[in-house]
């Protein structure tokens, strides 16, 4: 912790200065949150660097506020240990191949190559005895040595579940500088919010995180704005699992291993706008419409120099994709990925987008390309001058009109 100064403490406002403890698994941040009354309040985190060995869990009606880039939450290097024995669902004791590298009170993740995501287990170490670790909760699903069962000292930095009126703002979450290892699933996102309503995430920067940057699964009435996600191993931003009525705007996602922003599963009535997604390993904006998404708006974004598509929309319906700039994408395989891909997509408006490539050797040579069972899509007013394959419509009832190619 560096140069923190005392702030006022009221009945609903506390400062970490009064709770800071380097021996705490959250540097005292969780203790400060727990000290708030039932009606909630604000926890201020002064400038400094705070090491986490467990997730900060934010309940309803709590604001967690930092001092911008000067407030840094960080984790230690990952230690991954294989299990020596299979563990059945409901088990709480893990037998490791090597001596445990975790301590009581620290968070761990448990899973195998098959039991990931919602089927993995996040727990806290209850006791350690040599190679034996006992968790504070039962295993979510059985894991097997044959499927590479493992435990890791990794967890979301900030986690909230079934909460309302939560605000996270003005802080930086730092992973592991230069990390290029395993892409841990979305439940390890730096900010992992589940089934929350009236949630605001503002001015948060995530760097070098071994999973996704900011993920919001399920819930409604969510705003994620003025955030940055750089060099995350997974997606920069990840709205998913039925999230509705959300706005993702004025964000930047650069040089992430997955998509800049990834729509996932039944996202509806949501907006992604006025953001920049550049240099990501996969799509600038991916997963649009995929998994029963519907009635979302993707508008006024810059998607440039990404590995695959600028915007990838597939296997769904009822989207609005307007006013985006798609530039120099398909870096991963020149000529393969279009600026905007519409695959097995229905009843979508694609209007007023600019597809271009200004590199000496072009990589994005295809503009707006409809494929598969796509139909009833309207592609109009788009500017795709300079593309080898500017606009392709395959649906019997789709229309490509008023475009400049």
Secondary structure layout plus pairing:
Elements: E1 13-15, H1 29-34, E2 41-44, E3 48-52, E4 56-57, E5 62-65, E6 71-75, E7 80-82, E8 93-95, E9 107-111, E10 121-129, E11 132-135, E12 150-152, E13 158-161, E14 164-174, E15 191-194, E16 197-207, E17 214-217, E18 220-225, E19 228-230, E20 237-240, E21 244-249, E22 252-254, E23 261-262, E24 271-273, E25 276-278, E26 285-288, E27 296-299, E28 302-304, E29 311-317, E30 319-322, E31 325-327, E32 340-346, E33 349-351, E34 354-356, E35 366-371, E36 378-380, E37 389-392, E38 399-401
Parallel strand pairs: 1-2, 2-5, 3-6, 4-13, 5-14, 6-14, 13-15, 14-16, 15-17, 16-18, 16-19, 17-20, 18-21, 19-22, 21-24, 22-25, 23-26, 24-27, 25-28, 26-29, 27-30, 28-31, 29-32, 30-33, 31-34, 32-35, 33-36, 35-37, 36-38
Antiparallel strand pairs: 7-12, 8-11, 9-10, 9-12, 10-11
Structure in words:
Helix content is 1%, strand content 41%. The protein is globular, with a radius of gyration of 22 Å. It contains one helix and 38 strands. It has two domains: 80-152; 160-401, 3 Solenoid (Pectate Lyase C-like). By secondary structure, it is an all-beta fold. The longest helix has 6 residues, at 29-34. The strands form four sheets. It has a 21-stranded parallel beta sheet that branches. A six-stranded antiparallel beta sheet has the order 7-12-9-10-11-8, with no helix packed on it.
